[in-house]
Amino acid sequence: MTDKFYGMHWMLATPFNSQEEVDYESIKNLLKQAKSVGCTGVVGLGIMGEEARLTDTERTEVASTILSHAGGLPVTSGQQQMGQWQP
Q1: pLDDT score of 21
Q2: How far apart are the C-alpha atoms of 20 and 68, rounded to whole Å?
Q3: I want to staple 43 with a disulfide (CB 3.0 to 4.6 A). Which of 7, 29, 76, 85 is the partner?
């Protein structure tokens, strides 16, 4: 089995436009840049990804954009819940 988690993985910050909306086109550009400089994977929705600021819909769309435009790069996605566990 080949280990896909080697080398340099780019920690993607979530870009916003001037209206403070997620800039999905810039996510695609960041992925192209990561691939062009030799990154071996990317990480989205982590601490730098402003994940806690996003709505559930935005998080889903950001993850979908990353996965569909990663161009074969391995993707790691941060996930967190801001609420408390209830039994």
Answers
A1: 94
A2: 23
A3: 76
